[in-house]
Amino acid sequence: MKVVVLYRPDSEYSRIVEEFVHEYKRIHEGDKIEMLNYDSRDGNATASLYDVMTQPAILALRDDGSVLKSWEGNEMPLMQEIAAYTYA
Predict the structure, then answer these.
(1) CATH number of the domain to which 61 belongs
(2) N or C, which end of the chain is more exposed by having fewer CB within 10 Å?
(3) Nearest to 57 by CA among 88, 10, 15, 13
(4) Do 54 and 76 touch, CB atoms closer than 8 A?
């Protein structure tokens, strides 16, 4: 499983997202979160593939690419919620 964060680095929510991911990585050292710029080629393709309309968005994905859980908007989920999807 993997977790993907789609956000715009130059938006008003960028600091919230970056602090959330930084703190998550500090607490859960072995876990990885992939951060994608919403406006980049990969970010745009990912947003289109998973019908993400709002940013920031967090996607918990299975190994086959299907979505287990998604969060959209400026309300960040609890770190324990994310950790539940990254511990396999």
Answers:
(1) 3.40.30.10
(2) C
(3) 13
(4) no
